[in-house]
Every structure is written in structure tokens, then in C-alpha cells.
């Protein structure tokens, strides 16, 4: 399957989901991240924040990000899930698992920084290998179900934070950031890996 064909399928999937939900997906709205003061995050964070999806609110941005992920996974051919473009490279399924697992880590960091939780679970010890663990035993359907569960927790958590909690400062992987900027990193991290899958796996 060519990249152009896959992108067309994804676009159609997103449009179809919007119609089914009777809720237009506002992908042309202003980038909310552009209105966040730069004092809330350092330059290193822009690698992901600049790739975050648009939205007029944090809730809308995450909703758009969720819709894109579901459409993207649905559009991936089943026989591509176990495909890797080279030796010692992740499979498509492992890339998807990494997106999901690292989102759990970023969400935990956000809640720790916001003061909502105090106990670490996912951030105690992790690296690139631990974020893809178990992916080879999962089907596309398994990964989709796991994503939906994790993303629902992410959306619920950020939507429940007060304005003061969202603006609290902390760190993510050693980088200065406010809690709400981590939500944009979740969106941008997803986009980053979508680009990698399109360019290196599905051509």
C-alpha cells in the first residue's frame, strides 16, 4: 500500500468518524499551543509541541488527537503490524505500543506535577525497550483497545484539572514544563511517530 493511499484512507476515516459522532473535527482551528506563554516550557519541548494537533481548547486538541489515532490504527493493514523496515528496528505494532506506553508515562508525570497523585508507577524505571514490551503478542485490535483505554484516562485526567493545576510547573524528562504543556507533548509525540510509520514502514 502506497503512502498516498494510506493517507487518503485516514482522511476518509476521520471524516466518517466525524459524521458518525455528529461532531465536526476542527483541524483548521488555531493552534492553542501558540497562546501558551513560553515561560511554561523550554526549547527542547517544541520538538513535540510544534507537532501537536490544533484545537481551540485543551479538550478539543486531545479529542482531535484521539480521533486521528483511532483512524490511523484502523487504516493500517493487518499484515503490516508485524513489519519492521530493517534489522533491530521496531515493528509497526511496537511503534504503536511505544506511543501508548509513553503516553501513560507522560500522563503520570503530569499528575505528579499537578499534585493529583504522589505514587509513581510507570515512571519508576523505563526506557525505549520497556515502552514496547509485549507488543509482539498483540493484534491490531488489541493495540486499538489498549490505546482507547489509556487515552480515555488521559482525556478524563486533563479535563478534571483546575486552571491552577494545569499551569503548575514541573519537569518532563528533565525539561521544564507546565502540566498542560504535557498534553501537547502527548499529541505531538503521536504525530511524530505517525510520520515515521508513513515514511519508513508503509511506502
From TrEMBL:
It comes from Gangjinia marincola. InterPro entries: DinB-like, DinB/YfiT-like. It holds the Pfam family DinB_2. Residues 62-195 form the DinB-like domain. This is DinB-like domain-containing protein. It comes from the Bacteria.
